[in-house]
Predict the 3D structure of the following.
Amino acid sequence: DRLEDPVKLATQLGIKVIVVDSSLRGDHHSGFVGTDTREAGKASAREMVRLLHGQGNVAIVRIVKGSASTDERAEGFIEYVKTTSPDIKIIYDSWDGSSMGSLVSNTIKLLKSNLVIDGIFAVNETATEGVLRALRSTGRSKQIRFIGFDATDYLLDGVKTGELDGLLVQDPRNMGYQSVMMAIEAIGKAPASVKNVTTGVTLITPMNLQNPDIRKLLKP
């Protein structure tokens, strides 16, 4: 929302704008390159449903309101669960902050509450790390099915140890490539409808972590 007016001004000055990774309101930019975040949320939910055999209680840990990409992931997750798995209940869905401290603290409170939690979905890298740290500090890792988003060495260690059942990983290298190609194409052309390119997500699990294609995605 906040970038809509600056992008509009840029286009009025004749500057082509390509938006990468997180969606932008309006149609002043020449194109968007990124992940279909709603579909990524559905992919996360599909794996959670499989892990829970179609029944159980699930918590969703978000970061802050107004983050388009992360909220769309959560909404895609909720939509898939509600339409396919009536025996899975989403019993917690909260914006728990953007700092590591707030995410860890709020997740510890959740884990120490009276709620029975069978699975957790975290919407991005920070949320996933916060949940993993909270699970480790409370001794609950490997007791709760856990799907996260994005990859760091810390999170990949969680996959390796089985504390993380899955990570949805984007393809930033391809995003960068496609955005530059789109910018080149946009230069000198008359304004047209916004062009969108989605680059997909990959589910990384303890079972496929060492696959050559997965290693190449993580270390291009």
